[in-house]
């Protein structure tokens, strides 16, 4: 039996995403969610997590690319990548933003995050990762960090998987090892969010190739998702599969037991 954790990203980005994630948590088909604490919905939505009865991980979805507020330190993904690799991101503003997002999380939940990851994987970028690790050491962080260092390569998505891995996964894993911060061992969930993708088939591939301590990211939402979200149709497809009987049947078929990373 392989223990695998499904984590839904983008909690509190909007109401439709939050409601989908809460439903899947109550159904016990996902075991973690990663929260966007800059969102104007965050403090209200966070209270609903307290009603979930099953054990699950609540994480901070560190954000530097999605604009909730003009006061936030935000860039487009391409600009963020360019400035990270040219080391022209403001270290002061990165640190200030991490502190604010961390503080919002603790204010709403009453505890440190169980884990840290990044919206569009920004937590593994140069500058951001070094400041993040330093900050977590100061806070005596006892949780884990999402690692893309050992991704599952699935046919059709090898190039995107390789690109995401090269955007800092190896260096972040090295920093975590050096500073004795836990990570997931394996990672999956990467695809192109196309509406023509057979999401059930993709999950069957991930579940088949999953190893012990595999983290699989997902991005579910209800059918009323706001149209300005560029991947809203993919989110709906993900929710429909994860909430269906087929998902749990597929887990059983591939000898997978669902559990939070902390239980692995």
From TrEMBL:
Superkingdom field: Bacteria
Cofactor: Mg(2+)
UniProt-listed Pfam families: YdjC
CDD domains, A to Z: YdjC_like_3
Keyword vocabulary terms for this entry: Carbohydrate metabolism, Hydrolase, Magnesium, Metal-binding
Protein name: ChbG/HpnK family deacetylase
Organism: Acinetobacter pollinis
């Amino acid at each position: 039996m392989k223990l695998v954790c499904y984590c839904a990203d983008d909690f509190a980005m909007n109401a439709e995403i939050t409601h989908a994630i809460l439903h899947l948590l109550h159904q016990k088909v996902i075991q973690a969610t990663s929260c966007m604490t800059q969102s104007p919905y965050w403090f209200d939505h966070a209270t609903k997590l307290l009603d979930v009865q099953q054990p699950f991980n609540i994480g901070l979805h560190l954000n530097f690319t999605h604009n909730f507020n003009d006061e936030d330190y935000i860039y487009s993904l391409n600009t963020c990548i360019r400035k990270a690799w040219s080391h022209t991101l403001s270290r002061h503003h990165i640190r200030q933003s991490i502190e604010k997002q961390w503080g919002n999380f603790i204010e709403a939940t009453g505890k440190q995050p169980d884990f840290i990851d990044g919206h569009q994987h920004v937590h593994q970028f140069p500058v951001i990762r070094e400041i993040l690790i330093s900050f977590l050491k100061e806070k005596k962080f006892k949780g884990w960090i999402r690692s893309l260092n050992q991704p599952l390569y699935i046919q059709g998505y090898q190039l995107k998987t390789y690109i995401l891995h090269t955007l800092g996964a190896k260096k972040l894993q090295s920093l975590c090892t050096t500073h004795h911060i836990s990570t997931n061992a394996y990672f999956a969930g990467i695809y192109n969010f196309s509406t023509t993708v057979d999401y059930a088939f993709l999950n069957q591939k991930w579940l088949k190739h999953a190893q012990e301590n595999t983290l699989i990211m997902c991005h579910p939402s209800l059918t009323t998702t706001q149209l300005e979200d560029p991947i809203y149709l993919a989110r709906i497809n993900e929710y429909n599969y994860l909430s269906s009987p087929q998902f749990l049947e597929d887990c059983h078929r591939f000898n997978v037991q669902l559990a939070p990373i902390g239980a692995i």
